[in-house]
């Protein structure tokens, strides 16, 4: 059974706004904003899935008239997608916290090696003499906000617990 | 469980220290972090929420509910306990490691997916079991309930693991760094 | 048979559950991991034989017939890739176990490594076997979530940075995938691939183009085709050795498999695909040229990985039976050879203490075994005659030359890219194996899990790597039957009939 959804303009606009906001947040450096962006994008795509199953406010409950019922499959798909987004959100939270513990902020940084190679002249000597530049976060005053040598701190972020 | 160790009662904390090792197993937070109302409410609500989650689990095949939502509801009960009692409460009152709960849930799920093979059915196929129990009367159970039980355990385990790593872990880190700052 | 096809997914999941519960028993964890993967490899072999002999194997989960229920399908392509992937997963697991034993002793356990490794294996199996677009999404998520944990566990600051890039990019592609699924469902009302194949043809051409491009972008990010490849050379080199080998071997090829499956099944075309030809040229050249600029061994290999994705894209772009079959063979060969090279790179780094090419030297004298282990996969990757790489590349070139002027020009680029690959690998050989022997550098990051700069390397680590080299050699020894089979797979893919009949019954 193919249900051709008549596009409700309000829903279409809502989804468009959600996608725009989500992608905008995804473009920022802070992992927390990325996280919120992922959540918003997840909502956007779930809403789109719902819309693919028919207009709103027609619950697929057995006993009602099948013609007035939304397609239940997209709802099942959306439920699965929600579960997955839930798992990924928690993982991003842990990763952001881990980054905060290690380097004092949660910003996604540049690829240092790539910058180095991109910046070097077409001269093989430069390749030989270039040292490994350390990541440029040493001037960050907050980088030692939380000392991170404790094994439990590591366990906190990655769910990892090593035993001797 | 034996009476928790309260060998050197901090006079600042002892006046409202718990008499029973139920919510805060002797590992009491500072009075400024406590909320009496929340603790009492939690004590009342926690078992109710757990029972409700089991109800959702059982009713899930025909009505709204199911393993995932039931697991989340049960998880919320533990979150409430975490908020009321702090990290120490969950850390001390729990005998099972969260990863074990996760693993048990997954194992139940996979085994219940494979179990129909033993009855000549296909993988993940479900059947209806009926029985006349003495008090309850006729009871019908879909075998997909076992899969739901696995999902339930899995979700509860994940929430507990989150509370341990992100909840108590971060609290502990903050306290430690706060102590360092004061030194 | 329909039971056998579910086991490559269910057994690793069960193994993951057991290794989580018995996290305190490292011996049990190791035994479970190795046994499960060995059994899955055997099952994949059985599936391959059956699928090649008597057509696709189908399982309908829960007894719900397709297109309503979820179908698992093993045809020649998916069974072949499943077999090769599982063998690689097994070898890398043995390597990782022995590395841990060598560094930390027999008694240490890691709570997350084994469960996540097995979950990743389950996700990969499901991605190969599923006959359903949404289940493909779930499989990708299982696989990627496990990979997120594997790449960022026991993290240091560098690895957290690389992990963030990887996770963010993968998440974006996952959400795009979900959006594409919603669009596909809105347009056709089904997510079953075999059912979609029939309904897609009825859609207007513009709509098909939009849906095809969305899925292309989604799988393009996962497969690292060129404008979408930037995350790969940043993240893979920072993963610990065995994990990088696993990712390099499997993840991009799963993306390519999904692209191959969806484009042939849903968006069938009669002539070479110009857009994909352009992408293939860009991927081959930019990857190979990028590799030449690198000084970090792992980054160099990552760029070569990207470059050789382009070879497979070329096979897909020509879009006839031989070229698609050639792409399948190339993917199978590529899985083994890249995993081997990353494992060898791990062994080199372990010995020299660094990944910087300009700080190594003279290993041919101090570690001749390592030199042999490097040379064979390197020659294979470059496509030097008796090796599997040559066989696979020849299949692609033969298909391309017969397909018109555009593909012929791109076939020339294939040869140029192969030469550039050879140059990059010769550069590695000269820097690492020739020259003055240098003393091993001390471990510059002692906090992380990987111990480098030590001469104490367990023999099983070499054995696991040699096992993969043997798989790669086996591909070249059995080149005749394998090529014949991938040719049949290519015919199946373009015909679509057998797949649809197997899934939907006899009235597609």
Automatic annotation (TrEMBL), chain A:
Which residue ranges are recorded for the region named Disordered? 114-164
The UniProt entry, under Gene3D superfamilies, shows: 1.10.287.3510
Pfam families reported for this sequence: Oxidored_q2 (PF00420)
Superkingdom assignment: Bacteria
Q: How does it sit in the membrane?
A: Multi-pass membrane protein
Its localization reads: Cell membrane
Chain coiled-coil ranges: none
What is the protein name for this chain? Na(+)/H(+) antiporter subunit C
TrEMBL record, chain B:
Instruction: List residues traversing the bilayer.
Output: 62-80, 101-124, 144-163
**Which ranges form a coiled coil?**
none
The positions making up the signal sequence are none
Top-level taxonomic group: Bacteria
This protein's UniProt keywords? Cell membrane, Membrane, Transmembrane, Transmembrane helix
Q: Main site of residence? A: membrane
> Where, per UniProt, does this protein localize?
Cell membrane
Q: How does it sit in the membrane?
A: Multi-pass membrane protein
**Family membership:** Belongs to the CPA3 antiporters (TC 2.A.63) subunit B family.
**Pfam families assigned to the protein according to its UniProt record, in alphabetical order:** MnhB (PF04039)
Q: Where is this region: Disordered?
A: 1-22
Boundaries of each Na+/H+ antiporter MnhB subunit-related protein domain copy? Answer: 38-160
What name does UniProt use for this protein? Cation transporter
TrEMBL record, chain C:
Domain NADH:quinone oxidoreductase/Mrp antiporter transmembrane, by residue range, is 131-414
**Compartment list:** Cell membrane; Membrane
Q: Could you tell me the keywords of this UniProt record?
A: Cell membrane, Membrane, Transmembrane, Transmembrane helix
Listed InterPro entries: CPA3_Na-H_Antiporter_D, NADH_UbQ_OxRdtase, ND/Mrp_TM
Major place of residence:
membrane
Work out whether the entry's keyword set contains Lipid metabolism. no
The UniProt entry lists membrane topology as: Multi-pass membrane protein
| Protein's UniProt keywords contain Zinc-finger | no
Q: Name one Pfam family in it.
A: Proton_antipo_M
Transmembrane segment boundaries = 33-50, 80-97, 109-128, 134-151, 163-187, 207-231, 243-260, 272-293, 300-319, 331-349, 361-384, 404-430
Please report which protein family the annotation says this sequence is part of. Answer: Belongs to the CPA3 antiporters (TC 2.A.63) subunit D family.
NCBIfam families noted in UniProt: PRK12665.1
Q: Which PANTHER family does this entry report, sorted A to Z?
A: NA(+)_H(+) ANTIPORTER SUBUNIT D1, NADH DEHYDROGENASE
Official protein name in the record = Na+/H+ antiporter subunit D
């Amino acid at each position: 059974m193919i249900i051709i959804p008549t596009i409700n303009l309000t829903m279409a606009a809502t989804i468009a706004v959600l996608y725009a906001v989500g992608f905008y947040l995804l473009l920022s450096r802070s992992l927390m904003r990325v996280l919120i962006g992922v959540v918003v994008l997840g909502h956007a795509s779930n809403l789109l899935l719902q819309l693919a199953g028919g207009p709103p406010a027609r619950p697929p409950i057995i006993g009602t008239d099948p013609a007035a019922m939304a397609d239940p499959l997209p709802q099942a798909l959306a439920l699965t997608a929600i579960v997955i987004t839930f798992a990924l959100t928690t993982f991003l939270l842990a990763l952001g916290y881990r980054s905060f513990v290690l380097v004092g902020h949660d910003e996604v940084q540049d690829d240092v090696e790539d910058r180095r190679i991109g910046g070097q002249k077409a001269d093989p000597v430069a390749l030989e003499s270039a040292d490994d530049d350390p990541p440029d976060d040493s001037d960050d005053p907050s980088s030692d906000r939380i000392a991170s040598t404790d094994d439990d701190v590591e366990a906190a972020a990655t769910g990892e617990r090593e035993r001797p | 469980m034996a009476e928790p160790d309260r060998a050197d009662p901090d006079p600042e904390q002892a006046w409202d220290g718990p008499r029973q090792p139920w919510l805060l197993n002797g590992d009491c937070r500072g009075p400024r972090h406590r909320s009496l109302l929340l603790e009492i409410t939690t004590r009342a609500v926690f078992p109710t929420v757990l029972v409700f989650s089991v109800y959702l689990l059982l009713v899930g095949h025909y009505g709204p509910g199911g393993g995932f939502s039931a697991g989340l509801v049960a998880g919320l009960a533990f979150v409430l306990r975490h908020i009321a009692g702090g990290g120490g409460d969950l850390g001390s009152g729990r005998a099972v490691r969260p990863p074990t709960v996760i693993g048990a849930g997954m194992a139940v799920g996979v085994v219940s997916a494979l179990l129909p093979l033993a009855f000549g059915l296909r993988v993940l196929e479900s059947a209806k079991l009926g029985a006349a129990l003495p008090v309850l009367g006729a009871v019908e159970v879909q075998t997909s309930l076992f899969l739901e039980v696995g999902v339930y355990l899995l979700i509860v385990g994940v929430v507990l693991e989150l509370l341990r790593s992100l909840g108590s872990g971060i609290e502990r880190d903050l306290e430690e760094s706060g102590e360092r700052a004061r030194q | 048979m329909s039971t056998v096809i579910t086991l490559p997914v269910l057994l690793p999941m069960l193994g993951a559950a057991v290794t989580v519960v018995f996290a305190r028993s490292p011996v049990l964890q190791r035994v479970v991991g190795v046994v499960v993967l060995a059994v899955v490899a055997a099952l994949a072999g059985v599936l391959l034989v059956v699928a090649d002999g008597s057509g696709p194997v189908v399982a309908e989960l829960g007894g719900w017939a397709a297109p309503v229920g979820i179908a698992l399908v093993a045809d020649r392509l998916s069974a072949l890739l499943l077999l090769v992937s599982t063998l690689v997963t097994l070898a890398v697991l043995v390597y990782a176990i022995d590395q841990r034993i060598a560094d930390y002793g027999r008694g240490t356990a890691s709570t997350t490594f084994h469960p996540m490794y097995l979950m990743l294996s389950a996700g990969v199996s499901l991605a190969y076997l599923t006959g359903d677009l949404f289940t493909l999404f779930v499989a990708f998520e299982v696989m990627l979530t496990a990979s997120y944990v594997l790449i960022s566990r026991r993290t240091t600051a560098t690895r957290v940075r690389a992990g963030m890039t990887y996770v963010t990019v993968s998440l974006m592609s996952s959400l795009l995938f979900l959006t594409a699924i919603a669009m596909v469902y809105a347009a056709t009302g089904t997510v079953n691939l075999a059912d979609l194949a029939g309904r897609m043809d009825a859609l207007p051409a513009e709509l098909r183009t939009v849906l095809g491009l969305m899925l292309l972008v989604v799988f393009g990010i996962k497969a690292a085709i060129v404008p979408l490849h930037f995350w790969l050379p940043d993240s893979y080199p920072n993963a610990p050795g065995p994990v990088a080998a696993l990712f390099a071997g499997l993840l991009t090829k799963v993306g390519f498999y999904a692209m191959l499956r969806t484009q042939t099944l849903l968006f069938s075309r009669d002539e070479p695909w110009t857009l994909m030809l352009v992408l293939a040229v860009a991927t081959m050249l930019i990857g190979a040229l990028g590799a030449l600029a690198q000084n970090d061994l792992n980054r160099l290999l990552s760029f070569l990985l990207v470059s050789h994705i382009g070879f497979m894209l070329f096979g897909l772009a020509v879009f006839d039976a031989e070229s698609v079959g050639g792409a399948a063979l190339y993917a199978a060969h590529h899985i083994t050879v890249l995993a081997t090279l990353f494992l060898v790179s791990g062994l080199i780094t372990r010995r020299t203490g660094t990944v910087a090419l300009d700080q190594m030297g003279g290993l041919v004298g101090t570690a001749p075994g390592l030199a042999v282990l490097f040379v064979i996969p390197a020659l294979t990757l470059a496509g030097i005659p008796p090796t599997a790489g040559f066989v696979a590349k020849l299949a692609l070139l033969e298909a391309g030359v017969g397909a018109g002027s555009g593909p012929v020009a791109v076939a020339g680029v294939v040869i140029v890219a192969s030469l550039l690959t050879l140059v990059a690998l010769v550069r590695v050989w000269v820097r690492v194996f020739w020259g003055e022997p240098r003393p091993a550098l001390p471990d510059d990051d002692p906090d992380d899990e990987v111990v480098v700069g030590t001469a104490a390397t367990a023999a099983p680590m070499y054995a696991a790597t040699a096992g993969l080299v043997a798989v790669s050699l086996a591909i070249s020894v059995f080149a005749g039957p394998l090529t014949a089979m991938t040719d049949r797979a290519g015919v199946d893919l373009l015909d679509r009939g057998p797949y649809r009949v197997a899934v939907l019954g006899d009235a597609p």
